[in-house]
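step: validate -> pass
step: tokenize input -> pass
step: predict -> running
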Amino acid sequence: MFNAQTFIEEAIAGVKAKVKPGETAIIACSGGVDSTVAAAIVKEAVGDQLTAVYVDTGYMRKNESAEVRAMYAKMGLNLIFVDASQEYYEALAGVTEPEQKRKIIGGMFIRIFEREAKKSGAKYLVQGTIAPDWIESGGELRDVIKSHHNVGGLPKDMKLELIEPLYHLYKDEVRKVARELKLEIAERQPFPGPGLAIRVMGEASPERTGIVREACHIVETEIDRAVNLGKMERPWQYFAVLLPVKTVGVHGDIRAYGYTIAVRAVESLDAMTATYSDIPHDVLERISIKITNTIGDNINRVVYDITHKPPGTVEWE
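step: predict -> pass
step: emit ->
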């Protein structure tokens, strides 16, 4: 049986054995459970030899950057904030194929951290990679389900040495470690490394990303509200997806031609399999009304995804 305290002790010892006094490490902190747990473990092992870097790719959730910076300040991490949104928007302009998106995001991810590592003289790159990331990214006898930016998107000529203390853990085990470490993000729902870029089907332009950002915020707010009122259990993950096609609708007495939003909510333990969540109808209705009323003429249809994993995946790309 998995023992979180034993794992923490062994992981800290492993990092201490690798990172010698005087050497420095840099960690990609996204604000998610995986990277934050990895940061806490490495900080415990090497203290101020670790520098955390948070990159705003332009594909973060609403208010996320400010909330994450505040959380890391409480943890006492040495934090560097990088606004790379314009770089990412330019790199992904015109890109529609999901694997190409992930590889571009992964390549830029490493280049930005190499750039920051040069400033700090870091030798190591710490990542919150977990087992489903490398399993789904393929290799050896495994088929590629989807390349995770921290695995399949890594460039072959990367100069930093990797430290991945959570490499063999599944999501439920990572959460147990987070609880043992008393981290406030222990129950935070997963958020993909490529962010909202893979919740925009097709080109993830600033305009289309802004639409899905607002839709995701509405989905999260309304489900959180329903959970707090005791109307439902909190799903493992819940969000919105912007589809790349337009359909005909009506706003008032005027014909509208707008995008469709798909709402996704699932139950899972380890991210390897998932079942769709049975969301109360009135909660889905509130979500639909708020999305179509708030986002306006851009959206005229909202649907709910009732696909399990497999055959689908949790995210749509």
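step: describe -> Residues 4-180 form a domain with the Rossmann fold fold (CATH 3.40.50.620).
step: cleanup -> pass
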